[in-house]
């Protein structure tokens, strides 16, 4: 026999009360002196013995009444096994999902989540199994389903503090659902403990895989919200800062290197003061914050402060002037003040100011008439705009010296004649060591000499020069719009060409633009560490009207910038991104030391040259490369979604509504207790014994 309410059995101690009363009320007979015992001797001993038996019977009846009442309240049940086995008749599998995203660092939310998870484990019984998943945008830590609940408590106690990632609900729900579908128990449930950021639901709109997704039939879901009903926060949700700038050059007179340097420095300051950083600030949460302040720091030094007031708006855009001292590498930081949650109040960016690009233009057909001069239109395109990033030196073929190459980043040969001897060797060394060469042959070029002398440099071999009739012309028909130099020029080309050189690319050459006849117009080739380009038509007005077209200037700028300037590498990342550090490895290096924002060092191998951005700040490599890591804007938005919204979205309609463990246990007990009704018979017996006790009591003390 088992008892459903065994604590009531302590009431059996009350059976001692009638015994105590009987002992207390027992009277010792008084001694009375009589003159004669003649009448007492006539009293029968049977009557006294009968009264003693009645008193003992009355004592037993009263004690039995108390014991039976205690048994009735304890609810006896005939069941083979213990009550613990009865309560564990339907074991369950439970997955606990603990949010470890950025917003869980607000107040003591994460500690509350930890305690809620431990309390959920306390409700499980022997034979139940559970698992734990810590999550943010993805899965952070996983403990498989197990019946060892004590190990799960240790796992929860040792969970690391929340990081800086945003939260997404559906990836972890999918994982937990897959784990539960492999469980051997029928009762399966998911308990998500989170502050339920509204941004965690964003996957349902942006990811078709999440649209309409539901839990498997039979898997129930419940959410425990540890967030605050009232929350407020100011966030830097977007910052627009330049990653790379080109310094300008205003003194373009040839033969004055010293004067050029001074002019470049003064022009840098004038150019860079005009730059701005745009910052978008938003008030998130349920309580609107009306004012705050944003400070701009450059290389750790305060530069600008801009207070703002939102009023009845939720966000605003601030413009902060950016003043730099010239070419070099800079780090910038925006600091937001005005709220109590500081983790999302900083935004980092890095900026490189490149020196002016030095271009040496070799004019192969100079003329006193500027309209007919071979280099006039090309140099005008480079210098004709304010704050041009190019520093141009123009020489004739007779003035060209091999030493000029060391002072320039690119050489442009406009309709030049033969390059032989030391000049040819110097030009090859210049390109192979990282210089750039742009070739634009015209009517002064001999194809045979060109192909022989520049065979190691040119991307194409020249054939014959073609000159069309007066009313005939070619158009640009095919452009590689994916090429970095041509991607910004994604428009229709209307230039007309009446003369050009037939050509064919060399083995390592690549055609970037073609005429409508199919002949190449622009070719490219990589030579050593440098690159060369060939334009098969002159860049003056001799064979085309190209210099008079609006695309001429951007074509010249984009082409030379692509050839001279190193490819722009991504310098701004978000927490959770995988950063490819391949460009930072030195030749032959097997590993690279990376200093992360908290000052610690990590080693990245060349076999797996990726670093996972885990915290905001600046990441620096041993070779001087640095890049910024910031928090994703949605990670700091404190607006919440109601748990029922998520529940209704993912719960499978075929799932029977979940019943609480206490209710389920009560149902099982009722099913076993109903046909037995032992307590009912005990109560009936108590009533009968009560009547018998009353009759015996009246007979005993009459």
From TrEMBL:
UniProt xrefs under InterPro entries: Aerotolerance_reg_N, Class_I_gatase-like, Double_TM_dom, VWF_A, vWFA_dom_sf
What CDD domains does the annotation carry? vWFA
- The portions of this protein that span the membrane are 6-24, 56-78, 678-697
The alphabetized UniProt keywords are:
Membrane, Transmembrane, Transmembrane helix
- One Pfam family linked to the record: BatA
Query: Where does the record place the VWFA domain?
Result: 93-281
Q: Which PANTHER family match?
A: BLL2463 PROTEIN
Q: What is this protein called?
A: VWFA domain-containing protein
Q: Which organism is it from?
A: marine sediment metagenome
